[in-house]
Amino acid sequence: MLGVDHLTVHYGSHTALEDATVRFEAGQFSAVIGPNGAGKSTLLKTMVGLLPDPSGSVRFDAGHTAQSCVSYVPQQQTLDWGFPVTVWDVAMMGRTGRLGWLRWPSKADRARVVAALKETGVYELRGRHIGALSGGQRQRVLLARMLARDGHLLLLDEPLTGVDAATQEQLMGLLREQANRGRAVVMVTHDLEQARRWCDHLVLVNRRIIADGTPDEVYTPRNIEATFSSSHLGHTHAEA
Ligand SMILES: Nc1ncnc2c1ncn2[C@@H]1O[C@H](COP(=O)(O)OP(=O)(O)OP(=O)(O)O)[C@@H](O)[C@H]1O
């Protein structure tokens, strides 16, 4: 579905990501794992096209572009929750574009939004202002917007943040189901255990890609040490 080749991203003199090569496939639930500041969000943002002119390349499979196929869920805390819109409005942005109503919603758009709000369990909250939601409810609303968009590639930056254990289970189940239906799902997470349980493809990152493969291939003491120590050791590529 999507590959990045020899991707290097600098912020000024700081190198956030160096020579990263990885592929994300349709039907796979992938987790991108690493410590704070490892370059995980940078990898996602590059794939969405939010960072201009990275060196290396981001390649979508034929017929797809970031614009046409990506549904991106940014980190919750990077969004302005004081904006005067309702749960319904946010989910509808998945259909009509961001703000300013690029086009008027059709009956089919409304039906898709109803389904997405029901799937994520926030349909009853549809008239509520987004500023009046709990952290877990906000995360569900972001997922509803993502589902409403119907993208082939779902990119989620720390979707488990601020979410209780029962809700985490539901959200992981929902994302697993999206992958089973043939979408490529890529989630940034700090939660090694959740990633091992739900995902079939893990990418360990610490400025470089440390390891890339199935959970069994990737979760070795050496890889974990290399990822979560600050020394950026090693660079192994397990074949998935
Ligand atoms: N806009 C920016 N300007 C300058 N430096 C940045 C910018 N965005 C990120 N960085 C730096 O790049 C590095 C990678 O950041 P990134 O947000 O990709 O890490 P992360 O793995 O997502 O971290 P976290 O788990 O804390 O969210 C960090 O050292 C960060 O401080």
UniProtKB/TrEMBL annotation:
<keyword id="KW-0547">Nucleotide-binding</keyword>
<dbReference type="InterPro" id="IPR003593">
    <property type="entry name" value="AAA+_ATPase"/>
</dbReference>
<dbReference type="InterPro" id="IPR017871">
    <property type="entry name" value="ABC_transporter-like_CS"/>
</dbReference>
<dbReference type="InterPro" id="IPR003439">
    <property type="entry name" value="ABC_transporter-like_ATP-bd"/>
</dbReference>
<feature type="domain" description="ABC transporter">
    <location>
        <begin position="2"/>
        <end position="231"/>
    </location>
</feature>
<protein>
    <submittedName>
        <fullName>Manganese ABC transporter ATP-binding protein</fullName>
    </submittedName>
</protein>
<comment type="similarity">
    <text>Belongs to the ABC transporter superfamily.</text>
</comment>
<dbReference type="InterPro" id="IPR050153">
    <property type="entry name" value="Metal_Ion_Import_ABC"/>
</dbReference>
<dbReference type="InterPro" id="IPR027417">
    <property type="entry name" value="P-loop_NTPase"/>
</dbReference>
<dbReference type="GO" id="GO:0016887">
    <property type="term" value="F:ATP hydrolysis activity"/>
</dbReference>
<dbReference type="Pfam" id="PF00005">
    <property type="entry name" value="ABC_tran"/>
</dbReference>
<keyword id="KW-0067">ATP-binding</keyword>
<keyword id="KW-0813">Transport</keyword>
<dbReference type="GO" id="GO:0005524">
    <property type="term" value="F:ATP binding"/>
</dbReference>
